[in-house]
Amino acid sequence: MSGKESERDLFPGALEMMILRTLKRHPLHGYALAQHIKRTSNDLLQIEEGSLYPALQRLLKDELVKAEWGISATNRRVRTYKLTAAGAKHLEKEVSSFEKMLEGITRVLAPGESS
Amino acid sequence: MNWLKGLFARRRAHRDLSEEIREHLEEKVDELVASGMTRAEAEHAARREFGNASLVERDGQEVWKWLWMENLTSDLRFALRMLSKNPAFTFTAIVVLGLGLCVNVAIFAFVDAALLQPLPYRDPSRLVGVYESVRMIQHSNLSYYDYLDWRTQNRVFSSLDVYGGGSRLMNTPSGAVFVWGGRASDGFFRTLGVSPMLGRDFYQGEDLPNAAPTVILSYGAWQKWFGGRQDVIGQTVSFSDGPYTVIGVLPREFHFALRGRAEFWTTLRELEPCEKRRSCHNLYGVARLKDGVTVRMAQDEMQSIAKQLEAQYPDSNRGQGASVVSLSDAIVGVLRPTLLMLMGGAGLLLLIASVNVANLMLVRSESRRRELAVRAALGASKSRLFVQFVAEGALLVVAAAVMGGFAAQWAMNLFIRAIPADLLLSVPFLAGLGLHFRVVVFEGLLAASAAALFSVTPILRLSMQDMRAGLAQGSRGSSGDVWRRLGPRLVIAQLAIAVVLLVGAGLLGKSLYRLLHVELGFHADHLATLELVAPQTQYAGDEQTRALGRLVVNRIAALPGVVSVGTANQLALEGNGSTHWIRFQGRPYHGEHNEVNGRQVSAAYFTTLQARLLRGRFFRDGDDASKPRVAIINDALARQYFAGEDPIGKIVGDTDLSEKSLKEIVGVVENVREGALDEELWPAIYEPFNQSPANDISMVVRTSQSEESMLPTLVAALREIDPSIGTINGATMNQRMNESPTAYLHRSSAWLVGGFASLALLLSVVGLYGVVAYSVSQRTREIGVRMALGAQRNSVYELILGDAGRLIAVGIVAGLVCGVAAAVLMRGVLFGVASWDLQTLASVTVALGMFALLASYVPARRATRVDPVVALRHE
Question: Do A49 and B59 touch (CB under 8 A)?
Fold first, then answer.
């Protein structure tokens, strides 16, 4: 709205990766997860809160996270997501492959180098 | 059950998701309100930040959807498009397969109704039929006194009851009417485990002489004679032997095929004169096995009881054994071999039809190589392409199955309506014919295997070949490889199956012909027959019966159009039985039972039948009570008992040679067929009606005009003599032959298998044509080259027809071998023809060979018309 001309979609799997990373630190419910991602990304990433949920469903289906209904500190009925062992392993793999990709892209994009 | 669990899990996931989204929005709103927004503003903001909640929800749900299911619907849609793009193929495949399924479903429905559906009795598998057995008749009637002994002495039956014929005359306002009935011991219905739907069953002892006369109605009789009125219980039915009180009505679903026509059931309260002798056999037993007792054990037990009785009563019981069979065998045993044979024939037809359709699909998959190659190149996985074929096969089969089901229902109705009503009463279980659960499951199984076959054939082809090769334009060299190898083999199989069916049809047709042209011993044309039932009360004594016989003959003979009239106590073709035990004067005798058919016939009986006299003389009107007794024997008796002797003048009598039983043989007549068409010829002895009058009088009338049109006149004439006389079974002799159960069974199977065979012939010839035509089209270039190099037309014919001829020869030889094997299996349903009947085998070979050569000739001819220039430029 305010002059962000280059809004860009995340690449496939990015959102899942961020969710897994966040959940690795501590289990959270959907709302808290959304707030956390928004906050830590300093609002750089334009993520609709709602888009989290299909991603969470995919992770649930692949059994990378598990969910449990409970009562939050603010006395609210919430569904808390937790990383599974498989999820942790998946995260590790994804992160390392992402880092490789990032490194590759960065190198190509780096100015003044040619062979 | 996995998919069910999956379904529930999916439901729960959806519920959790929507609840979660709701909670999320609420938390956000609460937080925004806490930071000072109004509730309306907060709700708006929350929704904006969240995005489209319903879209999110749907995307979330989508995750759980089955991918394969979506793929399947798109595959099905694509399959439908492909099939409708090629309507000729689709139509042919559906019709051919539908026809095959229709035939199988219809036949199986008959098998189901006759052999699989349980009889309408309690625990029917524990019921058995109980018979005496003698050398000539395995299931012979039971004598009343033997029954009484069997019942008290056996330890294998929880109950044993008997039934027999009980047809009688019923007095109605419009005169006496003959009605079919049964007589049974008191526990008959309890043994079957059937209770009346109205009123009561016979009580114990109701079959004793001091019991009041009572009758139980069949459901049909209740409807027909009492309009289905509820107050029928306690009403009186007036039979010719007195009034009977109606005590019960049997349930609608009750039937008892062994006395299928019985409308009125009475008890054995009053024994018939014959029944008072131990040697009189006129009843049948039905029993319920005790727990743990097998039919075998019961058979052994009854056999040993029969042995004891034989020792105890040597005169009456010599050679009388016992026979116990399951009741379902007794009822449907006759039909089983025919039905199983038809099922086999139908199966073969379906096989041939399936092979044809598989062949079509194979050819079609050839022409779709490029399409498949493109799809594969665009990333369709192999399994995805397989599924495509499965979808197409399944669609075809489903369409064919639906068509086949409806057609089968229609065919069944048609067939049932074609069965004469009288005959239908002897197969009452066919009322249960229809597309029942078992039949539908059966069709489902057939359809599933057909679908599997149709999916596998193209897949087989697909995996054998490198898909990428298909992309190359004009790479025709290897294209038809699979089909070129598989196609001919399928055609050989088809031809062989067709031969098997043709051999079967030929043999059945010949059986039918032999059956209908069996030596009768008389001329059946222009013969009308009619049975009389005279009330016992009025025509009790010999004198009255004799007078009635005379009156009937005189009155009928005077009718215009009647050439002559004869009477007998039982008509020719009626069935062997009603036997006498005879003994020859002046010969050693050791108590053996010389059992022969015994008939009482009028003087003009043989001349009316136009039976040929071999020796001696026929009866005369003068052979009456005032003269010494005489007898005529048939040729079979003469051959069996008077080999090398002249029987004329010999004396025969009963087993005691009692004075009044002695008869002098005055004539030998050609074997008049007394039994059914497929029964053996038995020795028979005939006595003049005037010397031993019988109460049952059946007439044969030779007419100068159409015998069928005479029947009503005959009935009317008898009514004029005495309205209390009932008539039954008015029919021409030819009708009695053609509509007899055995003729009907033979005719139905001959026609049905004939139909199967014609279809098989058509399908296999079309299959052959397809293979030859395909090979010609593939070899156009080769043929063009050969002709360009100077090959003559004849050599092209030789080339094509030689290949086809080899296929045909192999198919026919294989078929003949299998056909003879099949015919050996079905020899039980053949009549008067051997399994390896050369004439049949030769005609089948010639017929199929001719059609097959014709089918190959057409494409071969096309091959010779190939213009070498065009063929070569084709590339």
Answer: no
